[in-house]
Design a protein that fits this description.
alpha/beta; Rossmann fold; 7 strands
């Protein structure tokens, strides 16, 4: 399907696009707060360092670098050779337990090697999410954890996703918890839990409203939105955690 285009994505976005990805989340001022909230939530579920972390679909490596900065032993994997090359040049430094590997996360051959596997905004690019989660299951040690922080319902129809598909040919699928949980169960994962999507909670909690309905929007509407994100909306938008 879109796998050949995924491999070429980082080549096609050019030097400016690559520089943008290497400096995420701070290169994206409109979304930096939401991105930091997402990765902060992921940290809450990780075992204590120096646990060994598998960062799947790591792109040019900023997420892997964050985990390594916190003391984890990290291997970032991506299907793009250009992304892996850039990550190695930009992030890998002496004394840091951080490495990058070129590979397809749907066909990884690791067995019982990692304490945690993370799909951070990457599983929705898979041709087959079950194959990717099955590979993650094999790679984890017994009792290991997988964390999915993925866009939910409506992502594929957003203007940015439509543009990316048309311009670069990449896959921009919806990956809601109600879909990924089925594949997690099929892959063998247990104790699957869904939590409110961090970026949505961030926006709902801190966006400031003005105008004639300021009080209502900043109190009642905010409270109702937060409640919905933590309850009825979780199957459509959420962070998913599961154990081997």
């Amino acid at each position: 399907m879109a796998k050949a285009d995924e491999k070429k994505y980082f080549q096609r976005i050019g030097e400016e696009g690559m520089a943008f990805t290497l400096h995420k989340p701070f290169a994206d001022p409109l979304n930096v707060g939401a991105l930091l909230t997402d990765i902060g939530a992921v940290f809450n579920f990780l075992p204590q360092p120096p646990a060994r972390i598998l960062d799947l679909g790591c792109g040019s490596g900023w997420t892997s670098n964050f985990y390594a900065q916190a003391g984890y032993d990290v291997l970032g994997v991506d299907i793009s050779k250009d992304a892996v090359k850039a990550a190695r040049q930009h992030f890998v430094q002496p004394g840091k337990s951080l490495a990058y590997e070129y590979g397809d996360y749907e066909t990884l051959k690791y067995r019982d090697a990692f304490d945690a596997a993370i799909f951070f905004d990457s599983l929705h690019h898979a041709d087959d999410e079950f194959e990717a989660l099955q590979a993650a299951y094999r790679a984890l040690k017994p009792g290991g954890i997988v964390i999915l922080c993925e866009p939910g319902i409506g992502h594929s129809k957003s203007p940015g996703s439509i543009e990316a598909v048309e311009k670069y040919g990449v896959s921009e699928r919806d990956m809601p918890p109600k879909l990924s949980k089925k594949s997690l169960q099929k892959a063998g994962f247990k104790r699957i839990k869904t939590y409110a999507y961090p970026a949505h909670l961030h926006r709902a909690s801190y966006k400031q409203f003005g105008g004639s309905k300021t009080i209502i929007n900043n109190t009642v509407a905010r409270g109702l939105t937060t409640l919905a994100l933590n309850t009825t909306l979780k199957p459509n938008h959420g962070l998913v955690v599961a154990f081997k």
